[in-house]
Specification:
The chain is α+β, with helices and mostly antiparallel strands and 82 residues long. It contains two helices and four strands, in the order E-H-E-H-E-E. It has a four-stranded mixed β-sheet, with helices on one face.
Length: 82
């Protein structure tokens, strides 16, 4: 299980909204902190790694789980140290 410093709930939003919300939220973090992004949009599986590669942040991991008969994705992003 990956530990996070801050959580961001984007449940109910479809891409690109989780990425836009992540971009805003990660600006509030200190370099090296990990943001956990909750999403029920399967698109986050490829959009978040692509966004991390573009912005220089580190994609730490992606977890999936079932909750209330829907799939929930947890994307973990470490803010770049720059």
């Amino acid at each position: 299980m990956i530990q996070s410093d801050v959580k961001l709930d984007t449940l109910g939003y479809f891409c690109p909204m989780p990425i836009i919300m992540t971009s805003k939220k990660i600006k509030e973090l200190s370099p090296g902190q990990v943001l956990e992004v909750l999403s029920d949009d399967e698109g986050i599986k490829k959009d978040m790694p692509a966004w991390c590669q573009t912005t220089g942040h580190e994609m730490v991991g992606l977890e999936e789980e079932m909750a209330d008969s829907r799939r929930i994705y947890k994307a973990f992003v470490r803010k770049a140290k720059r």
